[in-house]
Amino acid sequence: MTQDEIIEMAEQVGFEILYGWPDSFYAFAKLVAEKKVEGMVVMTPDELKSVWDKAQAEEREACAKVCEDISITGILLDAISCNHTKNFCAHTIRARNNK
To answer: Whose CA is closest to 89, among 68, 58, 61?
Structure first.
């Protein structure tokens, strides 16, 4: 990644400098361009979206399993209503993966 690419990305996400970029920003962009930070993973936007989508799907599945496993029987809910509610919640959470 070059210094110019870093500056361009900053502008794309809305960094606004009224009187030009300060020297310190150019120095920072140059350092980033010259040095790969240890442990840093560089991904394309598509790769990042894929990782994000997978993490969301895994979190939703974990939440759906909590719904299925929870015990919510009580005075106002019979066993059938309780199971229906748990299944409905789990199904609704999982359906968000298909949006």
So the answer is: 68
Listed by start position, the domains of the chain span 3-34, 45-98
The predicted-structure confidence for 40-61, as pLDDT tens digits, reads as follows 667 778 888 888 888 888 888 8
34-43, pLDDT tens digit by residue? 766 566 667 7
Q: Which two tokens stand for residue 42?
A: 């560089």
Cα 48 to Cα 42: distance, rounded to the nearest angstrom: 9
* Rg from Cα positions in the chain: 24
Query: Positive or negative CA dihedral for 84, 90, 93, 98?
Result: negative
Buried b (16+ CB within 10 A) or exposed e, 15-36: eeeeeeeeeeeeebbeebeeee
Q: Are 3 and 30 within 8 A, CB to CB?
A: yes
